[in-house]
Write a structure and sequence with these properties.
This protein has about 425 residues and is of the alpha+beta class. It is built from seven helices and 23 strands. The chain is globular, with a radius of gyration of 26 Å.
């Protein structure tokens, strides 16, 4: 047995020596340069997990990620919190995202009075005001309406809002992670309203939540009749509590703040309500001293997600081919293209759109790049949509809004690749000075 085992080890070692030589010979034509070693322990010996029983399928009744993915978490910062993290945010690690669906456990979360825990047996949705047949629905009754499933992103209008004066976080997660994308299941609100009847003078709808903040937002009737949804499902399961379980409203492409969670009431009227979240909050101050109010759709936007400060290029070698990846999205429609710049926006080339390209949804893009060690790059992405919008430069946006705004910042952003492959969040402006900056 000992001689047989020894012969097997020799044969195995000889095989990997030949394989390493073969890989080295073709490395010039391969996407990956060879680091093969004939004595690599990871391939020379049986791995520990292959020599013992695995867990039974009954161990976790609800599956969990691998323990080795412990860094893939929503994150918080005191700079964006109330002090007790009730009126606060948890941002999505978009640098780790794959495809256009965010797992429920990583989905961006924002609350104004903490996460409410609603008993579905006691859940009620009141629909009243300028309605022909006002009604109070239980969850069971609500789910009797025809269901639909759609894929859309939800983005906080403050996504990137901390950067009006310049980058604040050297992190793509904190710079652009105030958003996520999911497959939503529910019913179109227009389906319910066709059943109940809406009086012709109804022009506005109030959506109000049942959490401690009683979050309320006013929604124009045109959006209600377009694609507004009442949703109870997310990515194939019930909504999580932090996403409004058991029911929230979804307004595809529009501010996440409008997608009221723990929904309890819909009221229809001739006038908007002017709630706190559309007067003192979620309005943008212009240089004139006037504020923009009732601007709803999140504009066309994009970002590079890899490389990033979290996923740098310090391990790359000269000549390695690497995929630059990113996300693009628009609340106005469907992404039609993404340009990528290596010099901070002076010159652009076309990137490739990948996978599904859906309206008011994340769109993934990429570009295959040959890395040159010691070369400094300024990576900037620029998206466009089928509504005809193109991401503005920082100068263009600041020229209109100044630097006192908070919301709807969709200017292009830039990630510096240093000579050593580290990544920094930087800002490129063409004007020598920006007034009041």
């Amino acid at each position: 047995m000992d001689n047989k085992k020894s012969n097997q080890e020799i044969d195995r070692r000889d095989f990997f020596k030949k394989a390493a030589a073969s890989v080295t010979a073709i490395a010039g034509t391969s996407l990956i340069s060879s680091n093969a070693r004939a004595d690599d322990p990871a391939i020379m010996h049986h791995v520990p997990w292959g020599q013992k029983w695995g867990d039974p399928v009954t161990k976790n009744r609800y599956g969990m990620p691998s323990k080795y993915e412990h860094n893939v978490l929503r994150r918080n910062t005191k700079l964006l919190a109330s002090g007790n993290f009730r009126a606060s945010i948890a941002v999505t690690p978009i640098q780790e995202s794959m495809g256009i669906i965010t797992p429920n456990g990583l989905f961006f979360s924002r609350s104004h009075g903490g996460v409410a825990h609603v008993d579905p047996a006691e859940y009620r949705l009141m629909i009243h005001g300028l309605i022909e047949k006002p009604i109070v629905l239980t969850l069971e009754q609500l789910k009797r309406y025809p269901s639909v499933t759609r894929t859309h992103f939800i983005e906080c209008p403050a996504n990137g809002g901390q950067e009006w004066r310049g980058p604040q976080f050297n992190s793509v997660q904190f710079a652009k992670g105030f958003m996520s994308s999911a497959e939503w299941t529910g019913t179109y609100l227009k389906t319910i309203l066709a059943d109940l009847g809406v009086k012709k003078e109804a022009l506005w709808m109030l959506a109000e939540g049942s959490d401690s903040s009683e979050m309320g937002r006013t929604i124009p009737i045109d959006k209600v009749w377009d694609d507004a949804m009442i949703v109870w499902g997310q990515n194939g399961e019930a909504l999580r509590p932090e996403q409004g379980y058991p029911v929230r409203i979804l307004l595809p492409g529009w501010e996440g703040n409008l997608c009221v969670k723990w929904l309890k009431r819909l009221e229809f009227s001739t006038e908007p309500w002017y709630c706190k979240e559309e007067t003192s909050k979620y309005t943008d101050l212009k240089p004139t001293g006037k504020a923009i109010q009732h601007f709803y759709a999140n504009e066309v936007n994009s970002t590079v997600t890899s490389p990033s400060p979290e996923i740098d290029w310090t391990s790359l070698r000269d000549g390695d081919i690497v995929e630059i990846q990113g996300l693009a999205w628009s609340g106005m429609g469907t992404i039609t293209g993404v340009d990528l710049s290596f010099d901070g926006g002076r010159n652009y080339i076309k990137a490739d759109l990948k996978g599904l390209v859906l309206p008011k949804s994340w769109t993934r893009w990429s570009y295959m790049h040959t890395y040159k060690k010691g070369e400094k790059l300024l990576l900037t992405s620029r998206a466009m949509d089928d509504a005809g919008y193109i991401q503005p430069t920082i100068d263009q946006e600041v020229g209109v809004m100044g630097v006192e705004a908070v919301y709807h910042r969709n200017a292009v952003e830039t990630w510096e690749v240093t000579e050593t492959g580290k990544i920094n969040h930087v800002e490129i402006r063409t004007m020598k000075e920006v007034k009041d900056a």
